[in-house]
Amino acid sequence: MRRKTLYLILAAAMSSALGLLAFSCVKASASDSRRYDFPDIFDVSYTPDTLHRSTGWFTDAGAWFGFTAPEKRGWVNGFCGPFSLDMNRREWLAKSAVVVSPVGADKRAEGKDSVCYYPGELVMSSAYGDGAVGQRLNFINSTSALLSVENSTGRPLSYTGDGWVAGTRFECRGNTVLAMNPSGEVLALSFIPDTEISLTQDNYKAEAPERGLDHILISFFEDKDAFNAEETAIDSILANPEAALQANAQRWDGYISKTLRTDMPADYDRIAVKAITTLISNHRSARGGLLHDGIIPSHAVGYFVGLWAWDSWRFSAGAASFDPELAKNNIRAMFDYQLPDGMVVDCIYTDPAENNARDSKPPLVCWAVDKIWEATGDKDFLAEMYPQLLSYYKWWFEKRDNDGNGMCEYGSVDGTLEAAAWESGMDNAIRFDDAVMVANAPHKDAWSMNQESVDLNAYIANECKYLKKFADVLGEPFDAPDHTAKIADYFFDPERKFFFDRRLGDRSFVGDPGCEAYTMLWTGLAKPEQVEAMLPVLRDEKKFSTYIPFPTIAADNPKYNPRGYWRGPIWLDQTYFAISGLRNYGHSDLADEYTRQVFDRLDGLKGGAPIHENYDTHTGARLKAPHFSWAASHLIMLYHEYGK
């Protein structure tokens, strides 16, 4: 079928004879695809060589490359890029690999260009005196994006590249132009066979006969051998582009239909779709040391192009309902590097030499596996994971329980406090300000902080609950420690009416009220009377019931810093734990009120701004990394639980 969104954009552009309409995004009302209900889902406008930095790309399907839309002030008649998203090769391969122009067309209609980012689709239109050219970009798989070009000018179309990276070499292979980057990466531009292609030393030119719809496949490979292996698949896609586009549409409609409820406000639906788009934009296919597909924290920041353990557990929990296979592989990728003693390492990369095995991360993986189990009923996946999950669970008691009392501590392999703080995931939290490291004899590779952490032990108890559930489903034994029964009283301070870490030795409570206590509510481990005792502090607007609720420490703490990473700002996982925890104890109305504050007050959340790593407690301003999977996952969960 003809692609309706481009048709509508083109139709608007073709009205030039009547005075062409100025527009940005046009809803494709003639289409039944849900994606067109969410125009301008993100603003990814960026023309390379402008002074500011790009804050995100259009990417999909596990691809290691992405594109941006050209800016008005630096307009290019083509999508900008591609950009290589590998952590060690982040660069623009071209300002625009495919610039489109009608041959001999009348003068451009100034100011009549438009772009729009729908979920899984980037579109643009360029107007001329005698018609318009509409372009539409969809990822077909992890190596190829299909550029569809509709042309109402009645003239042939010319294609060429602009701003190639220095040293790019060109080769023509039939109807495919190979642009070979000095890094060894290869960009393949494949045209319909009747297109005339010519090469110069530093560029290519392709001219297609006049037709209303044209297609170019843009494919990106690590090297020439990888291209050779996929050449037949490229020809197959170009031979039947409509089938590939239909598969793309079905995939995205599936994501949306599996996520959206029928009883939510439209702007809350938009937030959920933004969260889906964030997770899928951060999907990366298996490559190098990443042996399974996974979801990275943020494609927009180079140092986040890897997989972290507790990040991965969260991402899998968020994606389980709409892409369970990706959620499964995201977990498998981390367990590919499980150590013989059961430890799951902190983070892994395409280059295994860069992996960090100095520490682990908080155990949330059984929770994520249960989300997948509930979504799929895949008993084989449970059976595959159970031995590894049980081994990881036992590792905590073997290597992170200094005095053998069943209460564990965050720690490290190398004995450093830095790595132990990383293991907590809350790198600079105030509760660790006075911590010191102690050796866990007889092991030479096991050290703990000198404090037992309430959140860690709540996570472990939660994992125990799910492991017992899996064991029952599989008919397997559960032969591991269970100290769940004593956690609530052990970590609750009846004087300050809050949960705290406890120091080894004298068992004194550590620090000031902080977000680690929320975990006791989320896991349901807190006693009802303890939650009621906590409520005045949780509802205090000067402490935790702030403009955006539930910061990492009480907002009136002298150490509170609105931009202090784990010393003040809002992290949406922690806010989710608190809100979901209140719901666990019958405070659904209050949980809904706090959810509305999150949805209605976070800067740019209902517009085209990316979802960020964390936010300012008092203003909702965006902080740290954009396009952040962690925040997106918990927004999906807040959306699902709202009103229930």
In this structure, how is the largest beta sheet organized?
Answer: 8 strands, antiparallel
Helical stretch tally = 16
- List how many beta strands DSSP finds: 28
Question: Uncertain spans, ≥5 residues at pLDDT below 50?
Answer: 1-24
Q: Categorize the overall geometry.
A: elongated
What is the residue-averaged pLDDT? 93
First CA to last CA: what distance?
A: 41 Å
As a percent range, the share of strand residues is 15-25%
Query: Rg from C-alpha positions?
Result: 26 Å
Helix and strand content put the structural class at alpha+beta
- What is the helix fraction of residues, given as a range? 25-40%
In oligomeric terms, what are we looking at? single chain
Biggest sheet: strand arrangement: 5-6-7-8-15-12-11-10
Note down, in words, how this protein is organized.
The longest helix is centred in the middle third of the chain and has 21 residues, at 379-399. The protein has an 8-stranded antiparallel β-sheet with strand order 5-6-7-8-15-12-11-10. Strands 20, 21, 22, 25 and 26 form a 5-stranded antiparallel β-sheet that branches. The chain has a 4-stranded antiparallel β-sheet with strand order 4-9-14-13, with no helix packed on it. The model is unreliable at 1-24 (pLDDT under 50). It is an alpha+beta fold and 644 residues long. The chain is elongated, with a radius of gyration of 26 Å. It has 16 helices and 28 strands.
